[in-house]
Amino acid sequence: MLRGMRKASSNWLGKIIMAGAMGALIVSFGIWGIADIFRGFGQSTLATVGHTEISINEFRQLYMDKLQQLGRQFGRPLTPEQARAFGLDRQLLEQTIAEAALDEEAHRLGLGQSDAETMRVIFSDPNFKGVGGAFDPQRFQAIIRQFGFTEARYIADQKKVSLRRQIAGTLSAGLEPSKTLMEALMHYQDEQRSVEYVKLSAAQAGTIDPPSPETLAGYFDEHKAQFRAPEYRKIAFVVVTPEEIGKWSDISDDDAKKLYEQRKERLGTPEKREVSQIVFPNMEEATAARAHITSGLSFDDLAKERKLSSADVDLGVVSKSGILDPAFADAAFSLPSGEVSQPVQGRFGVALLKVGKIQPAVQPSYESVAADLKKEIAIERARDKVASLRDKMEDERGGGASVLEAAQKLGLAATTIEAVDRSGHLPDGQPANIPPGLDVVAQAFNSDVGVDNEPISYRGGYVWYDVLGVTPPRDRTLDEVKDQVAAHWREDQIASRLRDKATQIVQNLGQSGSLADQAASIGAKVETATGLKRDGSGSGLPANVVAAVFRSAKDAAGQADGQGDTERFVFRVTDITVPPVDLASDAAKKLKESLQGALSNEELAQYVAKLEKTIGTSINEEAFAQITGGGSSN
């Protein structure tokens, strides 16, 4: 994954694309904010930005949260080593410092935003809109919880984000990529090529006779490191989480029915109403407007008089919890359909509310939710048991007991893996039986036999582990890996023959030979690909073949590896087409937006760098290295 990201950013177009990707990362921080990193300072400070301090403990939590979030996106845990390899640790630190600098600058400039405007921004955020296009409170709550926010904290954070955007928007206003740059990039990405090609595979390599014992032994000696046995470790671990312990619990129907009665209103689909609102700055204006409605003015006409669009007025079809202001919610859900409320004093102003269609609540039966309720009760009860077992395990470990001994005494299920390598695989190449997301193997390889390891936090619980044995890496004998050596030798022979054949075909084509004739001589088939673009989409050709095609001139022949060493492609470029640039096309508009984003990010980066220098920034590099697992930071 990291290798691919580095490769993507190695050429000039890739750098633009990666700039957009990194820009999206920066924007994502800007959208979600940084979770309370500037509160509750500990005694140790990671960095100071002007008058703002960033504490070690809170940056550590932020960093671990980010690794877990990226791990969920990639479908596997992201280790600190991987994060450092691509500089994610430093990027996060720089982003945190940049936001602190922008917050200080916003304060210095006296920028502000009203509560009403903050609420309007949240309601109009497309991330929080449901299928019907209206603000979805359940989606809102789910998303902010995913990023570690409560509702109040998210609203407060959005004020900071909006002020940062004010500064960034002012800096980027009027920035546009030049026409010359646009045309050059459009030419580059829209260029199309047509090729004829032949795919060479094992069939074209001919018969490969089995190697003699002497040949196989010589090949093994030359490639001995390739067949070397890695270091293996024998580990034992025990998992204690609410989910695991909850499986053992037997929850009665009486207990589940009690929770059902308590949750009845929340378990089903709540009543939803079509709600519109007009907010006024004071009670006097709202009262006068209500009098106009009593005199026959419609709610919609009142909105038009105040120059409000439907987006400013309509909240959509929402549940009571979807209206963030409690006073507005109470009023809207006490009105009959079609009526307009009296003026309602809320947190952010005075409003008149109108209710349209009403969707009644839908209540599920106990039987339909009993299993989920029992599971929830079991897990909740297990949380207390986890804490108790944690203390007991620590007591046993403190008394000198191994993980296996402590687990046996406490009646916990332990897992022993006889041999596992750093990649989490057994000696037979199969993955070890380890719970998803538990990085116990990496922890074990950073430990040793006899070390009393700290428990790993995992899914609301803990994992204790011991390293029971270490099998050092060693050179295998030929007898141990004879079949593997023979298979690798055969693959190398095929690859060598295919390279030779491909080279000969390219030479023949350079002497005005026909690709069809060359293909017929080796029992292969000529195929064609037209309209080929640099991204290779839809062509069916491997990426490195497409890259080789775009490095070749018209009528020139070339060759490239296919999928693995035992596949080779020979091609001839038959046509090159560069479509005229249409700066009004959708593709041009998207490219322009991407370039504007890159230019804006660059402008903002320079501004923040100057700002940080002006207000003063210092970083505790030793603390940063400790948090991110690096020996040092440069």
Structure notes:
- The structure is a single chain.
- Helix content is 51%, strand content 17%.
- The strands form four sheets. Strands 12-3-14-13 form a four-stranded antiparallel β-sheet. The protein has a four-stranded antiparallel β-sheet with strand order 9-4-11-10.
- Strand 7 and strand 8 form a beta hairpin.
- Helix 5 crosses helix 24.
- The longest helix is centred in the middle third of the chain and has 33 residues.
- It is extended.
- The relative contact order is 0.15.
Structure described in brief:
By secondary structure, the chain is α+β, with helices and mostly antiparallel strands.
Distance between the ends? 24 Å
Average of per-residue pLDDT values: 84
- Uncertain stretches of 5 or more adjacent residues: 1-43
Strand content: 15-25%
Number of strands: 15
Characteristic key phrases:
single chain, 634 residues, alpha+beta, 4-stranded antiparallel sheet, 15 strands, 51% helix, extended
Outline the secondary-structure elements:
Elements (H helix, E strand, L loop, with lengths): L1 H7 L3 H21 L12 E5 L2 E4 H19 L5 H6 L2 H22 L5 H10 L12 H10 L4 H22 L6 H12 L1 E9 L1 H4 L7 H10 L9 E9 L1 H5 L6 H15 L4 E9 L2 H12 L4 H7 L4 H4 E6 L6 H7 L11 E2 L4 E10 L6 H33 L4 H8 L3 E7 L19 H6 L10 E3 L2 E11 L10 H29 L4 H7 L4 E7 L10 H7 L7 E6 L1 E14 L8 H30 L1 E3 L1 H8 L6
Antiparallel strand pairs: 1-2, 1-15, 3-12, 3-14, 4-9, 4-11, 5-6, 5-8, 7-8, 10-11, 13-14
